[in-house]
Amino acid sequence: MKFKLILLFLLLNICFVAFSQDKQSEKSQKQDITVTEKGLIKVSIMYPYAEGKTFNMEYYETKHMPMVAGFLGSNLVKYTIEKGLSSGIPNQPLPFMAIGTFYIKSLSEYQAAIAPNRDAIRADFVNYTNVSPVILVSEVIK
Amino acid sequence: MKFKLILLFLLLNICFVAFSQDKQSEKSQKQDITVTEKGLIKVSIMYPYAEGKTFNMEYYETKHMPMVAGFLGSNLVKYTIEKGLSSGIPNQPLPFMAIGTFYIKSLSEYQAAIAPNRDAIRADFVNYTNVSPVILVSEVIK
To answer: What start and end residues bound the annotated signal peptide (chains A, B) (predicted)?
Structure first.
């Protein structure tokens, strides 16, 4: 009888420990997600819209961006791609056809990684666009 | 004796069910995070830099953006704020001083929510900037 009770107690204990550890790992994961973006540096490569300008989103998404991302190593937290749809102001032209954004930890590391590959990156531009991008370096505030 | 065994079995069962549900909710949460951004609409309010133009980031972050976000209800998935630091191209001026971005599910719902509040939003501009924003509506591709 006593043995059964001890066994019951031990098994429940193991179970609760496992359960609470699981809760904790979930909590730390949530914190990671909330914290990682704030304070990061964004490098946004913005392709302005103008008449006669073209942009091949499929090539950009499947070839160009993965190539550049591959140069950045662990400094790169994530990258995003967006496709311009319209201006948010009526009767205004579309400001940008596309924007590619690298979220990085260190700007100097980014520059050091890009410098030896700049020619390869620029040579690839003609494969998806005929417009020169505007590049914004910014800091994530929120 | 039999009663104790049944009790032990039941308690362990409850414990494992709770544990597996927790695992599942963690899994679905992870999927949400990965999936939610792709396909969302971004409305980016971009404040161009020019000489003599000013931007009060503290007011923007603590007053203006929370006010506008409050108009959007459950259509708003999240909003972000970034502060322009420099151009990514040497010897080029900073393209934007700041960008505020709303990640929304529906553009028409966004427009319907903003329309009756447009005057209040515009009247608040003078409290943090003297520049007219460029607004880009885009779709998250990746």
So the answer is: 1-20
